[in-house]
Write a structure and sequence with these properties.
Rossmann fold, 5-stranded antiparallel beta sheet, elongated, alpha/beta, 2 domains, 5-stranded parallel beta sheet
């Protein structure tokens, strides 16, 4: 069986050595053909060799992993992003719907990332832009999110999402142009992610973009009327939180 080639890019010598050793020890199907500790070193290396897999740290001493991708827009390598345990970075990857390896990683994490990289489609430019903007400006609220459907990944503007509804282990996103998208993740996943950007979980099965709330009707147990004329129930335990949000408008 032909070995897959890999290049490793990380500005921390210890981390680079550890990753090199872990791949050499546990993944004999991969041949490491080069390592680099900076954007400049990586660029020089990639001009000579294009690996099957590129292990790419996000933050480098002389720039970012995105700088390398911009230098080589036609790069065909499968990319495995490697990032330190940083809350902002993790949030960025979630918004972009891009897989990553979190340092310090386990043998299982590394094995899973290699398997995924070999089997999955590469992130497109829009996804990488979502990731790049979230990483570069961590204190700025994201404006876009990548959504996984059954057959593709769609990048959408957060301002266009009216509401989300739980469908067991799936979530349906409803948009202001009457379109909807079914996504293969739970409502809780998105409720946790989107609460900082103006979304409120008003019911076990419903998440709404607060800017689309038109009015709160107190009868029939309490429900919201949104600007697209849809009705969304409000659970008893969420009622006070909804009223607080409405009073803050």
């Amino acid at each position: 069986m032909k070995k897959r080639t890999a290049i490793l890019v990380d500005d921390m010598p210890i981390a680079l050595e550890m990753l090199t050793n872990d791949i050499s020890k546990n993944h004999s199907e991969i041949e490491i053909i080069g390592t680099a500790k900076s954007v400049v070193e990586a660029a020089k290396l990639l001009r000579k060799k294009q690996p099957d897999i590129l292990f790419l740290d996000i933050m480098l001493g002389d720039g970012t992993g995105f700088d390398i991708l911009e230098i080589f827009p036609e790069l065909k390598s499968k990319i495995i992003f490697v990032t330190a345990s940083d809350a902002y970075a993790i949030k960025a990857f979630k918004f972009a719907a891009i897989d990553y390896v979190l340092k310090p990683y386990s043998d299982e994490d590394l094995a899973n990332s290699i398997e995924k990289a070999q089997n999955q489609i590469q992130p497109d430019k829009e996804q990488l832009n979502v990731l790049q903007q979230a990483v570069i400006a961590p204190n700025k609220k994201p404006t876009k999110i990548s959504l996984h459907t059954s057959d593709k990944i769609i990048v959408v503007n957060l301002k266009d999402i009216v509401r989300c509804k739980s469908d067991n282990n799936y979530t349906t996103f409803y948009f202001n142009d009457q379109q909807n998208i079914l996504v293969s993740k739970t409502l809780k996943y998105y409720a946790d992610m989107l609460k900082e950007v103006g979304f409120l979980r008003v019911h076990q099965s419903h998440l709404v973009n607060t800017k689309y709330i038109k009015e709160f009707i107190k009868s029939d147990g309490g429900y919201l009327i949104l600007k697209d004329q849809s009705n969304v129930p409000v659970s008893v335990r969420k009622k006070n939180e909804v009223l607080e949000v409405l009073n803050s408008f």
